[in-house]
Amino acid sequence: MTRGAILNGLIYVVVMGGIWVALAGAMPFKVTGMFLASGLAIGSLYALGGIGMVVLYRASGVLNFSAGAAGAAGAMTAWQLGQWGVWAPLNWLACIAVALALTLLYGRYLAPRLAWRETVVKAVATLGFALIILGLVSFIWVDDPRSLELPTDQVGIVLFGLRVTATRLIAFAAAIAIVIGIWAFLGRTEIGLQMRAVANSRDLSALLGIPIARVETIAWGISGLLAGFTGLMFANLIRLEPVVITFMVIPSIAAALAGRLNSLALVLVGGLSMGVIESLLTLSPFLKGVRPIAPFVIAALVLLWTQRGTKLTFGGRD
Amino acid sequence: MDRSLFRLTPSGTSGLIFAALCFAFLPMLAGSYWLAIFTSATIFAMAISGVAFMYARLGMVSLTQVGLMGVGGWVTLRLNHLFDWPFEVNMVLAAFATMICGWILALPALRMRGLYLALVTLMAAGGLEILFATYQFPNGGAGFWGVKIGSTEPFRRPFLAQSPEAYLRYCITIATLGFLFIEGHRRLFPGRAWALIRRSEAAAMAAGVNVTLYKTWAFGIAGAIAGAAGALLAGSLGLLDDGTFRSSESIMLFALAVVGGARFWLGAVIAAVLFRILPGLLNTWGVDTDLAFVIFGVGLLHALITAPNGIAGQIHELIAKLRGAKP
Amino acid sequence: MIEIDTITVRFGGLVALNEVCATLAAPVAGIIGPNGAGKTTLMNVVSGFITARSGRVMVEGQDFLRLAPHRRAQKGLRRSFQKEQIADDLTVLENVLVQTDWSLTNTRAKRAEAMEMLAAVGLADRAHKIGAALSGFERRLTDVARCMVGQPRLIMFDEPAGGLSVEETSRLGDLILQIHGLTGAQTVIIDHDVELIRRICAETLVLDFGRRIAFGPTADVLADPRVKAAYLGTEEVAQ
């Protein structure tokens, strides 16, 4: 992590602390601790979504808006298999497999056709893919309230006065583990090195003989696996509704922006801070009605901050 | 003034004729069900033109146009229930307020690469969706938010456009003015600056163009048009519903603007028809409207990968080919 | 008089320009050097796309580096790129008019001046041809015409002859020689075509690895053994 990123991360924590003091300072920790726990829970979901986006973006230059939709398709598949009585762990695998398949389908057959276009066009194209997936999923499964349960929902601990299910703990732990895992992967393996090279400069990497197609396929594959897992978590912890899961991509973007589309650790810290701040806003009588927009406001402020003093750069790849 | 401002191109002429024909005949053709749909399509065509010109002429992607329509609609409703001003005043104020709102939302991204504007507007769409769901739309109640339980206060339509037919004509007129407003910009110096910015922001800067200013201006126009469209929508329905302004609607609006053909007025019309009329048709034919999403998604991918000028672009090419083939 | 005063540019650890100094007084000056020498970087600094670590660029007593990029154009800076930047959607005339759109002077006067410069480059008859329909040379000429309107002070050409035939290059060279007479502006050219530089540039700056290795009248510079060594390498005699 660069010094700037560490500083950035500290700012998130400090701001989070500041808001805590402002809103919750007067109250006993027994009460406010619940908000911390619930904030960390939702924050880890934002972070998970953001991590998936940033990993792929760094390796391929594509900001994949269809990750949520792929996850939704996977989650619905898992639910359906559960309805048919299939053994639960297979369902979860199916969820991840479906999301992986969809993501790879896009990455191998559609993304290359847009490889030389501007970044924003590549991102908008994934929106098209998201619409296709969402349409098919909504078509196949009638709009009914559903839920996706995991055995870890039954187990829980009491943390800071709030009952936290094992699923939430898994989401939180997974976010951290994934960041560490990907950091190790990028830093320690040869493929990871190649991926960093491609992220830095695609053309130069091709000239060096790095197998671009293979590296990008692996990047899309990782993104697909993450999308599947994230979709499963969203389905369980928020709601099993395709539209909702698909558009969780929006707070994921907020978390990705908090990480400056670059540093996974920063996405994690940023996402968690967003979750906690959003949760703490419940304590403000004035702001509590709009607390769900907290991640967006934070991301916008981060953008404003990072671009201070920036001159416009060339229209180049972008 | 630059004389070429008023030159009439074949496309422009056909556009004006189309608008005139719609003005004259559309209200007469439709029963009340289709009248409402045509009105809605006209209003959204206007909003689409805002988002389309930004993308076609400047490469700027805004994924929150419907959300901004919601802002315009909100302001119009609030003003309507708060004061006694005529509709036109409310509409102009709504356009202005939406423009300012759009600027505030887009401010973090206007000096950055195009991708960030797309991201920021997408987040804005999400945020606006939450705001509308939380605070709803004014219906005559007291306080800042103006919401009360019970029946809605009446909405004052424009003096000239009380009946549904007259209102459709009014919308067609305003929409046409909106198109002309954008086209007027295109023919004068803003259009020149935009074209050079599209080519290369560096070259534009080197030519003395204040790139941020012109991008902001373009976004402001799109916002103002969205605000006016929202006002028209409020006038059409008398009350607005937060479901109309979800973030998915903004995304689809942009997708359809590209599918229809972002460079052409015909593209905006096609996009509006797809947006408002296709789902209704699918319903009539007994096809699941969810498949509309699939069609739009495929259309967007197709447009981006192979047909950058959309359906309208392919029509234009066809016409040019037919014309060229004539001896 | 253009004074480049101790310009230093660093990209992280790489020093792209190392305290480059030169005072350009001739109507047409050249900048040459091997690939990677920093020629385009120098132009980018003057244009404002890159921030210099230190140094000034004085044009008629004003330090251009303190102005925002688009403001420099308003003060008389013109820049043409390696790939000509002509908007496909605009006509030749409209492409030229963009350069003066910022000023509030009379529209008719601006149009007249634009047509005058188009006539000077030989495109007056094609003033209403749309950008997309222009040939490569026509696009370059439009670029040049755009650089010539609105009282330019310093016009910078980055490899203007790239992709042009011998005849077109010769015509371009003639045109550049006329610029000072038509507009009073000084021109600076980067190019690899040494014959072009020799013909039209009265003085030349040579860069290598970000440093100035020679500056002066073009003939002297081109004969300088250090310049030859930079391009061709030196022969090391084994002892």
Order of helical and strand elements of chain A: HHHHHEEHHHHHHHH
**Mean pLDDT over the full residue set of chain C:** 88
- The percent range for strand residues of chain A is under 5%
Radius of gyration of chain A: 20 Å
Number of strands of chain A: 2
Please state the structural category of chain C. alpha/beta
Number of structural domains of chain A: 1
Span of the ends, CA to CA of chain C:
48 Å
Can you tell me the CATH architecture of chain A?
Orthogonal Bundle
Largest interface: A-B, 51 and 57 residues
Helices of chain C, by number, come to 9
Q: What percent of residues of chain A adopt helix (DSSP H or I)?
A: over 70%
Give the strand order of the largest sheet of chain A, numbering strands 1, 2, ... along the chain.
1-2
Compute the number of helices of chain A.
13
Number of strands of chain C: 10
Describe this structure in words.
The complex is a heterotrimer of chains A (318), B (327) and C (239). Chain A is mostly helical and 318 residues long. Chain A has a single domain (36-141, 148-301), classed as ABC transporter involved in vitamin B12 uptake, BtuC (Orthogonal Bundle). Chain A has 13 helices and two strands; from the N terminus they run H-H-H-H-H-E-E-H-H-H-H-H-H-H-H. A two-stranded antiparallel sheet of chain A has the order 1-2. In chain A, strand 1 (156-159) and strand 2 (162-165) form a beta hairpin. Chain A is globular, with a radius of gyration of 20 Å. Mean pLDDT of chain A is 86; it is low at 313-318. Chain B has 327 residues and is mainly alpha-helical. Chain B has one domain (3-244). Helices cover 74% and strands 0% of the residues of chain B. In chain B, helix 10 (247-260) packs across helix 12. The two termini of chain B are 38 Å apart. The relative contact order of chain B is 0.17. The radius of gyration of chain C is 18 Å and the shape is globular. Chain C starts with a strand and ends in a 7-residue tail after the last helix. Chain C has a domain at 1-76 and 186-239: Rossmann fold, CATH 3.40.50.300. Chain C is of the alpha/beta class and 239 residues long. In chain C, the strands form two sheets. Chain C has a six-stranded mixed beta sheet, sandwiched between helices. A four-stranded antiparallel beta sheet of chain C has the order 2-1-4-5, with helices on one face. Chains in contact: A-B, A-C, B-C. At the A-B interface, helix 5, helix 11 and helix 13 of A face helix 5, helix 8, helix 10 and helix 12 of B.
